[in-house]
Amino acid sequence: MRLYLFTTALITGTAILSSSALAQETLIVNSWGGTYEKLQKELIFEPFERANNVKIQVATVYSADMLAQLRAQKNAPQYDVVQFSGGQEVVAAKEGLISPIKPEELSHAADLYPFATAGLARGEGPVSLVTAIGLLYNQKTAPSAPSSWKDLWDPKYEDHLVLTDLSNSYGLLGMLMMNQVWGGTLENTKPGLEKVGELLNRSVIITSSPEVQQNFAQNDAWIAPFSQDYAHVIRQSGQPVRFVAPKEGMPAVFFTSNVVANRPNQALAKKLIDFSLSPEVQAAFAREMRYSPTNSKTVLDAEVGAEVVHGDAINALVRFNPQTVDGMRNQLIEEWKKLIAR
Amino acid sequence: MHSIKLDLSIAAPGILLLLIAFVLPVTGILVLGIENAEGSFTSAHLVKFLTDPFYLAIAWRTVKLSLIITAICFIAGFPLAYIMARGGPKLRLWLLIVITLPLMTSVVVRTFGWMVILGRGGLVPQALNMLGLVNRNFTLMQTETAIVVGMVQVLFPFMVLSILGVVTKIDRRLEEAARVMGCSFIQAMRSVVLPLAMPGVVAGSLLVFTLSASYFITPTLLGGTRLPVLASSIYETATKTLDWHFAAAQSIVLLIGVLALLVPYTRLSGKANG
Questions:
Q1: Do B243 and A330 touch (CB under 8 A)?
Q2: Model ipTM?
Q3: One domain, residues B232 and B161
Q4: Chain A: nearest CA to B65, how far in angstroms?
Q5: Contact, B30 vs B248, CB < 8 A?
Q6: Which of A120, B100, B145, B273 has a CA-to-CA distance to A249 between 20 and 30 Å?
Q7: Can you tell me the distance from the alpha carbon of A32 to that of A107, in angstroms, rounded to the nearest whole number?
Q8: Cβ neighbours of B145 (radius 10 Å)
């Protein structure tokens, strides 16, 4: 009899334990690998798991693939939270693949810069982090620090320019910005192409990010339009390279976090996104990777603050309409190729 | 004794492999190049290529560079192959090792080596600078010269080995007879050895030409984005702008171009064999 009781107790005990384990909810999210994913796990996913008794599964899927997967899984979505960096949220919201988030559902919404929550009304997720495209220059060799996009045309920088091919998204954004500075629009890229054409004889054209670093290290590069986070990478490698925000403003890559539509754990997904918007998390991303925070309450160390666009300056970021850019991209790249071919 | 059935059964595995790994995918690509997004026939992609001076210039650069590379490989490779064939077995072995050794390292690694040697402040520009020929910032990188240099190094072994195989089989006494009849060394070379070695030269040239027309790693790394060749343009179109139809159309042009060259060449080698 005692044995029987003991066994029953054991069985019920196990059942309770395992049912509570079953009750633990799971969120499936995507990330982009590398340092970014590692930091996200450390700063967002693991603390969130502990605080909410939830399991987070991370899959490394880049933005364009992520959108393709969401489309394919429209009837039975497999992700709860998806992150985009290439403006895919605009398309995803239009196609009803992601759920709208109301500002009152995010405790940090009121603290975010206006541009970060502007997409909420259109059904897009909030902007969590930003990296701006400005000018990188070599403090030791360049005759002076640039302050304007037009400084690239200043002959004092001689033939020490590095330009990025438009097949690279940073290169594309830089080009669109220079086009705008010289009076062009997304519908008319002629001014930009013509003006950049004048720079070709003084420039090295690269296609991948590591080549920027290589040109500063080995090819005596002085100045290059590129991103603020990569300026940090180059600086870490020992090159005296600094990032400058040109006075005309800067284009930027906007990272958004979105709740996938037709998934059961919407509330928890929103909570996770909200958590990633906290000043502490954003400060850590600024410190480690030099991504700009979108939460105005984020406090940055002086050293980090000097290298990361933040505060009022962040409102001057230029966001080209992702859908328009998508539609014109191939045509512009072809014109660019024709321009640079010798 | 010679039955077609037997021949076929022996060649069957190879033919099967070719069908699965070559004919099928290549046909797929060819079809892709002549259809539009809806899947119906269109020649628009090919017409775009053949009427745009930009793409014609890319095709011309590809042909021009391949010809130069082939010519250099022949001019440098023929004497070397001859010496290897006529030298002692020990010399031949060592030269063989020296020539084939580079084939054992990755093309990318070798190309990065050239980037260091040809780039700003690299070995060659610095030497030229010390001789007072160029200024300090001179670089050979991102020039057609760099592409030719890099490609010749990659493809040189193919030429030498093709010629070597044929020259070793040429009867030495033919040369001796020519010399006895009063030919100088050069004359004997030109009127006896070279014609007899023609099949090897043709095979080597074909290999080198077709390979250099279809290489994209070395031209991309050494020539940069401003000097596109056909293969790198196909790569860019397929992977960066994701326009598979146009990429396929470019592949058709490349394939037909190489085939068009193959036909007269095989005729030539047929004559040389006869």
A1: yes
A2: 0.80
A3: yes
A4: 14
A5: yes
A6: A120
A7: 26
A8: 15
